[in-house]
Amino acid sequence: MSQPTTQFAPWLLGAAALLATAPALAQQQLVPAESSIAFVSHQMGVPVDGHFQKFAAQVAFDPAKPAAAQIKITVDTGSATLGVKETDAELPKPVWFNVAKFPQAVFQSKSVKALGAGKFEVTGQLAIKGQTRDVTVPVQLTQSGAKTTASGQFDMQRLTYKIGEEEWADTSMVADQVQVKFKLVLTGMGKL
Q1: Cβ contacts of residue 114 below 8 Å, gap of 6+?
Q2: Angle at Cα 163 formed by Cα 157 and Cα 165, nearest 5°?
Q3: pLDDT value at residue 21
Q4: Residue 188: left (phi > 0), alpha (psi -120 to 50), or beta?
């Protein structure tokens, strides 16, 4: 039994060496103080602005090879704020984000397509409150010095993710559509 194993040993070592020398996709670093993830909901027709105070990004992106990109955005749902103390106290509760059971929302990319002029289409899965859906997000990249800014916005339906259950599922009170806006400032990316 040991003889076949030893015959494959040189091949395995060669494959391991080849993988070790393959260039890894460069990892970018998020600049949290300059980045933001915000959302706009509508209560009885009136736009209400909110944002998340804590989030992280794991980004490995080469503008010359967008198909190889790996992007993961993790948002602490308990950091959601609308700027009103009483309302903010409601957001972590089970009918809204249910932070005790689902402390994070996660976007994981599956594919990235270059559209030209620094524009990209990122398709992936968005998981919020135990619900996972495919989403496509338009992203605009701009560079200034050593920093790259990835910005964009997309619409989502809150009820798809069970955000606002029971009496709050009434869309005449709070609209189903929520606009998500993001600006992620990154360092370590190659030239566009």
Answers
A1: 63, 66, 120
A2: 115
A3: 42
A4: left
Whole-number pLDDT of residue 42: 96
| Tens digits of residue pLDDT in 57-82 | 999 999 999 999 999 999 999 999 99
Comparing CA positions, the residue from 88, 5, 65, 73 lying closest to residue 37 is 73
Q: Are strands 147-157 and 131-144 parallel, antiparallel or unpaired?
A: antiparallel
Dist CA 179 CA 104 (whole Å): 19
Confidence of residue 26 (pLDDT cuts 50, 70, 90): confident
Return the CATH number at 167.
2.40.128.110
Q: pTM for the complete prediction?
A: 0.85
> What is the tally of structural domains in the chain?
1
87: CB partners within 8 A, 6+ apart: none
Expressed as residue numbers, the domain containing 55 is 25-187
User: Does 1 reside within a domain?
Assistant: no
pLDDT value of residue 141: 97
* 17 vs 85: CA distance, rounded Å: 56
Structure tokens at 107: 């976007």
**What is the token pair recorded at 163?**
């955000």
- pLDDT band (50, 70, 90) for residue 24: low
Tokens of 132: 């996972």
